[in-house]
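Problem statement: downstream parser choked on a complex file, so we are re-checking the raw output for the magnesium ion run. The parser issue turned out to be on our end (a line-ending mismatch), but while we're here, posting the original submission so the record is complete.
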Amino acid sequence: MKNIILTADRPTGKLHIGHYVGSLMQRVKLQNKGDYSEFIVMIADAQALTDNSGNIVKVRDNVLEVMLDYLAIGLDPNKITFCIQSQIPALSELTTYYMNLVTLPRVLRNPTVKSEISQKEYDKEGSGVPVGFACYPISQAADITAFKANIIPVGDDQEPMLEQTREIVRSFNRTYNTNVLVECKAVLPENAVCYRLPGLDGSAKMSKSLNNCIYLSDDEATIKKKINSMSSFPRNIDEPGIIEGNVMFTYLNAFANDAHFSKYYPEFKNLDELTNAYQKGGIGDGRIKKFLNDVMQELLLPIRERRCEFEKNIPMLIEILNKGTKKAQDMANETLNEVKDAMGINYFEDDKFIQDQINKYNN
Ligand code: ATP
Ligand code: MG
């Protein structure tokens, strides 16, 4: 069986460097490897609406921002099907049937959903949490299974969603005695610090919702300002530097390579050497920030330049999404049809159902 790759992003803002190392880099690698029959990248606007129902402008405005980021980092519309979630009605239908296979406590136990709810400051009893938000992992299961995707390149906050998806797949196949649905697995970044890149403020995850991001499209001055404003542990320059919980070093671990050292920080060959020297003392955080800034500017300049080029051709982007969405609709409809067949609710195409009903009332 050839792989089917699927992944999605919520259009709640532009994409950031956490997305880059957590998922986007893996997508480019998988795209270039070419070992797949379908590769679908979805803009998950319906999921974004689960906690932004009153802010449709934000979601609408970010659909193309996300698409621009995709093309800017090198995802290729000739190799990938780009689509918009809300325009694929089969996903909502699948969600409806899957909801019956998941219990309420199971939905509320999802650790990612739990931590997102606590970040959002819904009132203490959770009574402000929209049902759609609590259930978004179920709709994510619909997104994945609709395309029979088996490979999902994501950050590790998505593991609980994939576990939920696998449970639904097993439950569906068992309940309806079928093998229509396919189990999926995550492809996580190779470097574990990229599983969940922390925010500039040191919080556990860089996230659009937490406003602690370096965006792929930030300009040179903004990047520099954000890096300079990163908090560091106050100390005298001669005192030993602390690495644990030091976000500057986490970012260097995620982004800096040996070539960056020879170009911008030739006193050291690699991150291990710099880390040792920093721990001994004598290196100020200003110097580390300068190096980190050099590394980030080198990465983000070409991405920003490509983005500017694509910004000149918005009708082309819309056409790519429109075409991809139509293809995705066909694929999802096909799975929905198989699902309804397996459940026995394709009444009008089911000759046996029709004949049985006739016999039932005529005998
Ligand atoms: P929101 O705050 O609206 O949820 P987000 O920043 O969490 O936005 P998503 O659209 O939810 O972004 O996530 C898209 C993909 O990027 C997912 O695969 C997720 O695992 C990955 N991702 C997001 N943030 C990070 C991060 N800080 N580190 C690694 N991967 C991340
Ligand atoms: Mg998220």
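For whoever reads this later: The CA atoms of residues 48 and 54 lie 11 Å apart.
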